[in-house]
Specification:
Length: 349
């Protein structure tokens, strides 16, 4: 192998959760950097706070043989300059039954041309459309990608004008090519509740444009989180060495593996990535944990002090208003008394 190792933030065996190869056993190879910041990205927090680790290609190859898995090269964005050579090395040097490459199209055409044609690789182009300009750029790139038989389109669909504009154009192109198997629409959302709620819209759109529907099983069923948690359980460490990555969870006393996973999913799957989850999704040593708890205690005391100051401020304000009210009442009474005494003196005269 020409490259000895690659730098990734995730490397573990699971299943493909979306698109034409949904359900296939895959080894996720996730790069850290992305050229975009999508608001509904389901890996944005993970990319920001996860550390990169070096993974030997020979160890990845051994896992492929042991599990009979394909590989899924994803990110982040694997075609950005920082990751391009390593992504190419994975696709070129490893021996695998099938590979998926998930990309927003940044440098996808170059990667398709650079990988060996003998490899079985499905390139998944997922356009990110937030404006008319994004839609026009996606159409321009799609014109080139439609010439490749091993390129598939995965679109996160919303009832939005620019996405509809792109889908109308793509539908016409696909109809002429008789290649409806190449396009898959997916619901928007990062939680199970959101995905199920938005699926009805995507079903209607898939029928309207003659596209395929793809659920996002890794988010709906959470099997990727389950695999990562199991890795932590097996290592039985408070933080990961460079060979592992994932979510740091704390086991309760006497809690077995299944109860830990159920508790994790019940607590976090309803509302997505909560603040506590984001705090735990990084490599945490014992000293880091103490420092974090100390910082949280300081912030809690500061909030209590601010709350007490606000109560005192409001109390002073109420006293001031009450004092002014009493002063005005006294002044009014004094004025009334003077008026009455003046009237009596006039009568006496």
């Amino acid at each position: 192998m020409k490259n000895d190792y690659v730098k990734l933030i995730e490397c573990f065996s699971t299943f493909q959760g979306e698109g034409p190869d949904s359900g296939r056993r895959m080894i996720i190879l996730r790069f850290k950097t992305c050229n975009l910041r999508c608001p509904w990205c389901d890996t944005q927090v993970k990319m920001r706070i996860s550390m990169e680790a070096e993974y030997k290609l020979e160890n990845i190859q051994k896992t492929i043989y042991d599990t009979n898995s394909g590989i899924m090269v994803t990110g982040g964005e694997p075609t950005v300059p920082r990751h391009y050579d390593e992504a190419l090395a994975l696709l070129r040097d490893l021996d695998y039954p099938i590979a998926n490459v998930e990309s927003n199209g940044f440098n996808l055409v170059k990667l398709i041309n650079d990988v060996p044609k003998s490899k079985t690789i499905h390139f998944m182009y997922s356009p990110k459309i937030f404006s008319k300009r994004d839609a026009d750029n996606a159409i321009e790139l799609s014109e080139k990608l439609l010439d490749f038989d091993n390129v598939y389109f995965k679109i996160v669909y919303e009832e939005e004008a620019n996405i509809k504009y792109y889908c109308v154009w793509l539908s016409e192109k696909i109809r002429k090519m008789e290649a409806s198997h190449k396009v898959w629409l997916m619901p928007e959302g990062v939680t199970r509740v959101d995905l199920i709620k938005n699926s009805s819209i995507v079903f209607d759109a898939s029928e309207r444009y003659n596209f395929n529907f793809s659920s996002r099983n890794h988010l709906i069923y959470g099997f990727i989180w389950k695999v990562v948690i199991k890795i932590y359980i097996e290592t039985n460490k408070h933080y990961f060495s460079t060979e592992h990555t994932g979510i740091c969870v704390v086991r309760r006393k006497g809690e077995d593996d299944e109860d830990l996973i159920k508790r994790f999913r019940k607590k976090y799957s309803k509302s997505g990535l909560s603040r506590e989850l984001r705090d735990r999704m990084y490599f945490e040593k014992r000293s880091d944990k103490k420092r974090r708890k100390r910082s949280q205690a300081i912030r809690l005391r500061e909030k209590e002090d601010e709350k007490q100051e606000e109560i005192e401020r409001r109390t002073r304000l109420r006293r001031f208003k009450l004092r002014n009210k009493n002063t005005r009442r006294e002044f009014k009474n004094d004025k009334s008394n003077r008026r009455q005494s003046s009237g009596r003196r006039t009568q006496e005269d």
